Amino acid sequence: MIGARAVGIVILSSLLTIPIAGQRPANGSNPPHGQQQKGGPAGPGKLGDWLRAHKDLPPDQQQKALENDPGFKRLSAQRQAELKERLRKFNSLPPDQRERALQRMDYWSKLSQDQRAQVRTANQQLQTLPADRRTMVHKALRHLRQMTPQERQQEFQSAKFQSTFSGQEQTILKNLAEINPPADNGNPSPH
User: Fold this and answer.
1) Eight-state DSSP code of residue 31
2) Angle between helical axes of 113-127 and 167-177 (0-180°, round to 10)
3) What is the residue range of 131's domain?
4) Do 98 and 61 reside in the same domain of the chain?
5) I want to staple 105 with a disulfide (CB 3.0 to 4.6 A). Which of 32, 36, 48, 153 is the partner?
């Protein structure tokens, strides 16, 4: 269940990659070199920006804002329908789950392209595990992410770790445990 929810959040994050009309830094200048991306003069910005900017609007006004967004208008009708459905699902979440989803999107936006690919691959492998094993892997991952790199290595080499988790599970854990970008305050991002 946790894995499916995480994958759902990753999929939902695609909603946030559409450019925001006229998006510019608060000072009105162009974004710094290297931050411009395909999709418009200001690029799509950080994942979560669109939802954060529109989260306090009622759902019907959010949908209107989405439909009026120039980046959204450039998408195919099928893609537009998918994004509208994802927005509807996001708005159906309780407020605490919406906030956690935004935090996960922020986490995702801090990952490099290689790290994102690594997470996608690991999540695909994770989905092949039985539900009880996925739960066990998720619990272990939360535990591992609280450790220093040296503590993680000791855990990976421990007999208990090696006897508890299959080779596939160990690989998933090793790949995902290393991906933990710091939050803005220097503490690990919530997972």
Assistant:
1) P
2) 150
3) 113-177
4) yes
5) 48
* CB neighbour class for 96 (10 Å; exposed up to 12, middle 13-18, buried from 19): exposed
Q: Give first-to-last CA distance, the chain, whole Å.
A: 14
Distance CA 109, CA 103 (A): 10
Token pair in block for residue 80: 């537009």
Counting as low any pLDDT under 50, the low residues of the chain are 1-44, 182-191
Q: What is the pLDDT of residue 162?
A: 95
pLDDT at 102: 87
Same-domain status, 117 and 145: yes
Residues 181/111, Cβ–Cβ less than 8 Å: yes
pLDDT, tens digit (0-9, with 9 covering 90-100), for 165-176? 999 999 999 989
- Please say which residue of 75, 109, 143 terminates a domain: 109
For tokens 């529109």, name the residue. 54
- 20 lies in a domain? yes
- Do 98 and 154 lie in one domain? The reply is no
